[in-house]
């Protein structure tokens, strides 16, 4: 990736910190004539909005998006139509409370980028993690809402499949449950809610935190997107997901499991389907073979580390090189992986939209 | 990534197929005055060269590299000095035997990109996998040999840490053993050689194949390389590793394990070191926090799927949409993960060299 | 250029139309620790602001810039310090009067991009030229104000050297006169003001328009920026200048004159200067030889076509393919070249800042 | 441009110096299924080949191109079909005579990049100008030969329209004459041959050199290529042309003339044509309005400075900072502008091919 821009034809540039007046993004290269509403974007943003349950940060941010350019309004007064020029979106920061961070401005919090930042830039905006703040991800979600509109028939959904030592039961997988009001975890398994809630309450009350694994499934991805060895679709999905804060691992299809099994077990066999396209008998590949989509569901998973802001004191040093013990107060997610679900969806949608346009550009075959 | 080029300031463009006359790469943006010899490059290439044991493909390729531009020769007649202009390197294909592939030209081999290729491009060079062939990776290794010279003090090494269901014992880790003549597996654990040999002999004789996990460790990476959320060092390492054929997963530091543990367990505590830089008490982060290197060893792992070319017949279809059973003869690696070790090293070295130059460009702090 | 982003390490992405709520830019890759004030940016913006004399459009726009990210405020409460993260700047559109454009929404104005837009995008925001509006250039000027701070000692100045058939007398060149209150033309020749005023009054009253030639001079450009044949400094300056609306030609140094003279006349001879750097005896090259800066002043000129919006009816067609005669009312600059001076300065400053960082990145020699 | 790569979807990376073993390029992003022959490329290369008349350098180079990747051969054994993967082309350097350059290895030739090179890189390959050699342009011409095949119906032709103080008579313009055996100048005006020959013989015998202006005309460019203000088609054409050695100016359509005339004179009026597309009554715009092609011929001109290698001694300095007088012997073109004609064609063709794919990618409207 080049700086804070990602994508090659569908390009997203994000900007903004946790404690500045606003954050946002510029979506460049959107095809003309794409129709969407503010509500389409807002609905996505609301999914990752803080303060919606006791399991996420209590920071109160309405995350209301403004579209400043790149669209005309249709006669209905609501539908926006992209003109093909850059779409600028802006979200104001409302609940900043920068005093919360005052006491740790000079300390290097373990697990955070504080020390690395200071070495790199020589100065940093310590408030709320500055550019590293999870708030930046709102811009990605807004961009992803537009990306979703570009590939006809594309549906990108995500689910939390494990949290710390607890996992879902895949036999219970129910996509419809994820939007349910009783589901603060983006889990597809109704039976897991109580398990996760009890587990995370314990973590939260202990001032601790825990990681999670998220799975993203993209249906309706046409075969042919990507390239054999560079500009691979899976590579750009992995890159996009790894660009999310706190992500430490990514896998496509069966991922690391593929390293443990044999060629016979791993190969997805095919038969000719009734509709003239192949019928795959399994999907270990996660919908991508040799970097190119096959028409199967594209499946990716990523690991989110536990929030580094915890109440338990940890050994560290400060800017003067003195040994200190750091304890991070403030309003933090006990499991940042929860709100990573819509972010992961957005990043996968952006990668697919970009490759859709690139494939059309190079081959004209869509 | 943009097409077949990767990197932003240290840029590598590769070209070539398995069965054309040659393959190669152009390394652009190399600093002037970098000194290296043909032997430096050849030594790296020899590590991934086929035909060196019964556990890798028996294709015979000398993989002799030519440097066609971008250097002047020093007075010793051997040392090449980069001039700052593009370095073009070329490796001829010698042992092509394209007849081996004749019978499966019209079949879509399960696990291979054949079907996806045909959908994407409408035609393909079926010989040896065309552009998807593992032979292309020789170009990466050549580029990586130069990348290694750019960051003073950088050492990038790789090891195979598991193969199928067998793993090394980390207590036995010995980097020096990896170059040993009795070690056809790039394993750092001497005790594992017999285990892997027996296991892979069984796989090989059964006409089967198996996957592997590779770990890359980069020492001497200065703190400050990367960026907070995009152009993250870990993201570009992940992207580079995912661009290698057959890779299905990547993790940094403790990777997916981070999703299973708490913030207290995961945080790498610090104390002030005697040399004026922090002493980290652990390295769960894999040397990268918030996308920026910390000065610790940078650690990445990637999962390689089993070779899809196997002797056991698998169900598939052909170009005419007829159901067929595919059996792939020819000279294939029973575990392509073995030769992926030097490739992974090269890709990590390229990412680090690129970020070293980018960091110097933006900040002037190196 | 890639879409609406230019630059490689110092990257600028602009967005916004004439008649949306706002326009702006994201400056990415700015080194950390660059100090500037809002006034530094505002002063540049004020130079290109409309409505400052009868010779430019009467649209009233305060063009007040907001800096939304990428900076911290120094203890003085005024100085902004870049943090190394993206700097987002926003300028609101105030005086939009979109009704002015109603009547020509369906006509293709000759000399404008109306027809080409419709072919390309299938729809367009006709208000004020949409994305092609000269208002977008405010974003460039804001970005240029930051670019000017990056290269120590850099001074970039511009001058209008001809307008239609009238030209300045170079013997009278006085940089200090350009900022003078009696100088609405950015001319460096005090004697030319009356000439240009009389000439342009005639043009303006006739409802006509006229073109201009602008010259940009950058002093303090260190030797060594650029590259031999691609990524040439002059090439990127030319590209940046050609990206400005209505520009139809660019030249470096003596430009097209070089094609008319001999090698003896054109060569800039050198002698060793007292300060250890070469003393060039002339500057036909415009400070750039073989794509690389020599330490002399960098000189570029560009030709701006006459405003296409004129009162004289011109033959054209409309969206329905009917022949029409088009007359463009509204508030237009009779010579858009005047306000192009600060824009040209900004684009040259951005190119130089980018190459400064790129040179430092590749070679470490700054 | 990014280093030695240009183009966004149709990307060309060139490499090689005058005195290395070879030079070449990698064409990446070519659509699959493009059909061409080696002769198609060779014919273009032969146009710029040295040694074809007394008016160009006497260096003897067959400039025979090899295609090393990215194609399959059709059943006729001659037609190459692109596969969509990178096309690598290589041209060997045969007639190198590096001793010619020995005596000036330590001198900075006026008008050459010698001094700038040394400042930038700290070392340089002085033989034949190193990377700045005109030989590199062979790679561009080879890439351009493929670019020409991508846009259906595209014809790109160039002509020398002036040489030093002599110009063609446009009333005599005859494209067919340019390929004529009696025409060593790429002039479209038969009457000019004797004028140019006498003039250049004088220049040549005096050991001098002279500049030239080249005009490139692209017919068959579909309307809609480019973008309003960045990624303008004219901007990328200007960038591509300015990347050619010795080019000091570029103009589109009437170029600098547009700055001298009024809006009424400059506007290209339209009427509805019989074929349902607009009939433009003039082409001052050079086929591009607001950065987007209109369907008219695309017209660009560029100024080439006189060869800096001349026999007349010029004042300069050497690497030790001593004043010297430099006289450049060797085999040089008295007017490098002549052989710049096919190079300019190639660069324009590459820009158009790239924008054709980009337009298709973003809009799907081709």
From TrEMBL, chains A, B, C, D:
Reactions catalysed, as given in the entry: 5-O-(1-carboxyvinyl)-3-phosphoshikimate = chorismate + phosphate
SUPFAM superfamilies per UniProt: Chorismate synthase, AroC
Gene Ontology biological process: amino acid biosynthetic process; aromatic amino acid family biosynthetic process; chorismate biosynthetic process
InterPro entries hit by this protein: Chorismate_synth, Chorismate_synth_AroC_sf, Chorismate_synthase_CS
Chain positions recorded as NADP(+) binding sites: 48, 54
Enzyme Commission number(s): 4.2.3.5
Keywords from the UniProt entry: Amino-acid biosynthesis, Aromatic amino acid biosynthesis, FAD, Flavoprotein, FMN, Lyase, NADP
One Pfam family named in its UniProt record: Chorismate_synt
Amino-acid positions noted as binding FMN in the UniProt annotation, renumbered to this chain: 131-133, 245-246, 290, 305-309, 331
Entry's Gene Ontology cellular component terms: cytosol
Source organism, top-level taxon: Bacteria
Listed pathway(s): Metabolic intermediate biosynthesis; chorismate biosynthesis; chorismate from D-erythrose 4-phosphate and phosphoenolpyruvate: step 7/7
GO molecular function, one term: chorismate synthase activity
CDD domains: Chorismate_synthase
Listed cofactors: FMNH2
Co-factor note (free text): Reduced FMN (FMNH(2)).
PANTHER family: CHORISMATE SYNTHASE (PTHR21085:SF0)
The family this protein is said to belong to: Belongs to the chorismate synthase family.
Function: This reaction introduces a second double bond into the aromatic ring system.
Subunit structure: Homotetramer.
Name by which UniProt lists this protein: Chorismate synthase
Species, as recorded: Aminobacter aminovorans (Chelatobacter heintzii)
Phylogenetic placement of the source organism: Bacteria, Pseudomonadati, Pseudomonadota, Alphaproteobacteria, Hyphomicrobiales
């Amino acid at each position: 990736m080049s700086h804070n821009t990602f994508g090659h034809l569908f390009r997203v540039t994000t900007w903004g910190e946790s404690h500045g007046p606003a954050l946002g993004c510029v979506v460049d290269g959107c095809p003309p004539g794409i129709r969407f509403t503010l509500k389409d974007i807002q609905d996505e943003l609301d999914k990752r909005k803080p303060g919606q349950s006791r399991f996420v940060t209590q920071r109160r941010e309405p995350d209301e998006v403004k579209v400043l350019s790149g669209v005309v309004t249709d006669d209905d007064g609501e539908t926006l139509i992209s003109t093909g020029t850059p779409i600028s979106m802006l979200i104001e920061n409302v609940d900043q409370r920068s005093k919360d961070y005052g006491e740790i401005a000079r300390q290097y919090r373990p697990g955070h980028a504080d020390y690395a930042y200071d070495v790199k830039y020589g100065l940093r905006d310590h408030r709320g993690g500055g550019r590293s703040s999870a708030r930046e991800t709102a811009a990605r979600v807004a961009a992803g809402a537009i990306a979703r509109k570009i590939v006809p028939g594309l549906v990108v959904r995500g689910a939390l499949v494990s949290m710390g030592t607890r996992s879902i039961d895949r036999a219970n997988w129910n996509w419809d449950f994820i939007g349910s009001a009783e589901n603060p975890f983006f889990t597809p398994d109704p039976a897991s809610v109580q398990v996760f809630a009890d587990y995370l309450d314990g973590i939260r009350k202990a001032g601790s935190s825990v990681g999670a694994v998220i799975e993203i499934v993209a249906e309706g991805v046409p075969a042919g997107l990507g390239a054999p060895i560079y500009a691979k679709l899976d590579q750009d999905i992995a890159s996009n997901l790894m660009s999310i804060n706190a992500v430490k691992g990514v896998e496509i299809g069966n991922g690391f499991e593929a390293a443990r099994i044999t060629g016979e077990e791993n190969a997805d066999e095919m038969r000719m389907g009734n509709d003239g396209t192949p019928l795959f008998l399994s999907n270990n590949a996660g919908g991508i073979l040799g970097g190119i989509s096959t028409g199967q569901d594209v499946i990716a998973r990523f690991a989110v580390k536990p929030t580094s802001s915890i109440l338990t004191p940890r050994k560290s040093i400060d800017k003067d090189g003195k040994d200190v013990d750091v304890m991070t107060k403030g309003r933090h997610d006990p499991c940042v992986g929860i709100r990573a679900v819509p972010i992961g969806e957005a990043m996968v949608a952006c990668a697919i939209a970009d490759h859709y346009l690139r494939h059309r550009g190079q081959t004209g075959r869509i």
